[in-house]
Amino acid sequence: MKTSPFLSRVCGPAVMAAVLTTGTAPVSAVPEQDPKGAAGSAAIGPGRGGQGTLPARELVLTFAEGEYAEPVKSAVTLSCTNVSSAAQAGSHPSPKEACADLDKANATLAGLPKDPNAVCTMEFRPVTVTISGAWNGRLVAERATYGNLCQLVSNTGTVFRDWPSF
């Protein structure tokens, strides 16, 4: 599988190797939240740190059982720059659909499509997901916890659906 040069630079070769071989990333690969607990994003322009502009749309998505983003149980890469090529789409099982949902949401968890017809149990078995990377020239780092897997899937469209490690 071909990996994104951007994700390799951001995550480092060890993290990318772990994601590609085991489907999980070390805890250090998950971005930290600010002290108030809010996820955020920051715009990056040309010339910052000599790196130039960020690639259009490349993300690392993680999934963890429990109320914390660690330990990561599963992680995938998603490149929405050119989803017509499977080699460039990363390891996400449904890259075209996930990219379409992320486009509509501008790569925010809160903006992802919700399934109004979903019926989930009240079982409290929390799961936590993260989105990190670059989207339309800005850095993205978000984290959200859902009451259970059904609530996650019904609130995030195709982005966190059908992962092999669920």
Question: What does this protein structure show overall?
Answer:
It is a single chain. The chain has 166 residues and is α+β, with helices and mostly antiparallel strands. The chain has a single domain (5-29, 54-155), classed as 2-Layer Sandwich (Subtilisin Inhibitor), CATH 3.30.350. Helices cover 21% and strands 22% of the residues. The protein has 4 helices and 5 strands, in the order ααβββαββα. A 5-stranded antiparallel beta sheet has the order 1-5-4-2-3. It is globular. The model is unreliable at 14-50 (pLDDT under 50).
Overall 3D form: globular
Rg result: 15 Å
List the helices and strands in order. HHEEEHEEH
- pLDDT below 50 for ≥5 consecutive residues: which ranges? 14-50
Gross CATH architecture: 2-Layer Sandwich
Query: What distance lies between the first and last C-alpha atoms, to the nearest angstrom?
Result: 21 Å
The profile of the biggest β sheet is: 5 strands, antiparallel
Query: Number of DSSP helices?
Result: 4
Q: What order do the strands of the largest sheet run in, or round the barrel if closed?
A: 1-5-4-2-3
What amount of the residues lies in strands?
15-25%
